[in-house]
Amino acid sequence: MSTQNESCDGHLSTGANSLANDRERLSVFTVTIGATVPTGFEHTAAEEVGEKIGAEARISKDRGRIYFEISTDKLPMVHHLKSVDNLFVIVKEFENYPFKDSKEEALSDLMQLASQLPWADALGVWRMNNSLKKRRGRRRGGNNTKPKPSKGEDAPVPAMDEGDSVVTTTEKVQQESDAPQEKEGDRASSHEEEELEDDATKPLKFRVTCSRAGDKHSFASNEAARDFGGAVQDFFQWKADMTKFDVEVLLNIHNNEMVIGVALTEESLHRRNITHFGPTTLRSTLAYGMLRLCQPQVSDVIIDPMCGTGAIPVEGCIEWQDSFFVAGDNNDMAVSRTVNNINYIQKRKQDGGSSAPGLPVDTVQWDLCHLPMRTSSVDIIVTDMPFGKRIGSRKKNWDLYPSCLREMARVCRPGTGKAILLTQDKKCFLKAISRMGGLWRKLPTVWVNVGGLHAGVFALKRTSSVFGTTPEDDRSPREDGEARSKSKEEQ
Q1: What predicted TM-score, i.e. pTM, was given to this entire model?
Q2: Distance between alpha carbon 30 and the CA centroid of its chain, in Å?
């Protein structure tokens, strides 16, 4: 116990000793990083981790979470992952934690656990991460103060029962060196040292967020967060603050599996590229996952015929700049939002000093069932179809889905074309696609959670049949409706 206390106190002690200890912690060591991802896209996220970081990711028993080990010199690379919502560094994992049947005993165990955990490496990574974010903020010329988290923001880990609790410190005051004779690099280094000393002399503010899944626990999430947070507060002598916190401690419980971590992201990354939102804006991380499923290649023409706010083409033109994207919608407001979001990305690139040409994307207002594109001219179609809840209706979908699938088949290249389509109206979609056997071949479906709705990401492959030569080509939406009505009457 004394060893652990000394280690953590060394991290958070004040004055010159603190600064020396922090520099020592900057040496390279290995830690486990956890990431929350859109449910259903765990394997896609794991592939991205392997591709961009070279680490092997393992998927948690609880959906929507992956873990991977990295050396701390690769920490900046973690923030370039596009498929993750939140990032955290793991303090300790328990694969089979022995929760007591009695609430009092179970909570007492959690309180005792707080002082026994190996906090040192995780807090070292947290400090490195803070320094990294400040340097990025200075390069952008933006305000470096920590933004206030929104109430009700996405929890770090999806859970059946969620509760927040506790704690944190005074806001950091950044001191700038304005000595004119200093070089810019020296000034930045001096600035970082001053910030480290300033951080070390102020008591940290923190909170504990508990996410729990499973019905065999004798305690609620808010009770676990409250008692565990109280023990963390006593151990570190931090201050509790639910909103203006410096450190967020995560207590993730799934049945008998428990993971304690420290958050590295202040808010979910799923809104990273969107500034103009619509009624059904798709999460950027989900849009990226859908694009990865279709594996865009150089010179591919990729369209989103129902682009909404443009989340899919925005993610695509940033990551796959050798492909060309067309974003379209029948709603002029949707097209306007998409244009604004694309302009925001372009301006951000210019402000960052990029001299690269414009983004490979164009926008157009069109009729989904009569696309102004040549037959067999599109390689990939990726779109978020109307669920029939906030946009459209289930009744309209019965006519819309067959018509749009037929028009998508017309513009898609036979034999090689692909479509990745998201919808929660599974019954209508499956019925429509069952009548398109000559045009589309259905591939395995990825089931995802979209705002609490169970939806499917349907992958389709264009058959080699030339459009206009199959029976499906000649059936109008009205004929589909009449056939459906006749079928109901027969039943």
Answers
A1: 0.78
A2: 24
Nearest-5° Cα angle at 413, 407 to 414: 95
| Distance between start and end Cα atoms, the chain | 73
Distance, CA of 73 to CA of 80 (rounded, Å): 14
The rounded distance, in Å, linking the Cα atoms of 347 and 341 is 10
Instruction: State the average pLDDT for the chain.
Output: 81
- Alpha helices by DSSP H, listed for 144-299, are 184-201, 221-236, 284-294
Phi, psi at 304, each rounded to 5°: -120, 100
Question: Phi and psi dihedrals of 52, rounded to 5?
Answer: -95, -25
Q: Helices 284-294 and 311-319 sit at what angle, rounded to 10 degrees? A: 60
Non-local CB neighbours of 173 within 8 Å, separated by 6+ positions = 198
Cα 304 from Cα 96, distance rounded (Å):
45
Over residues 235-276, the pLDDT tens digits come to 999 999 999 999 999 999 999 999 999 999 988 877 788 888
Our measurement of the distance from residue 387's CA atom to the centroid of its chain's CA atoms, rounded to an integer in Å, reads 21
Specify the amino acid at residue 316. G
DSSP character string of 23-60: HHHTS--EEEEEEE--TT-HHHHHHHHHHHT----EE-
Here the tokens at position 77 are: 């690379």
SS3 83: coil
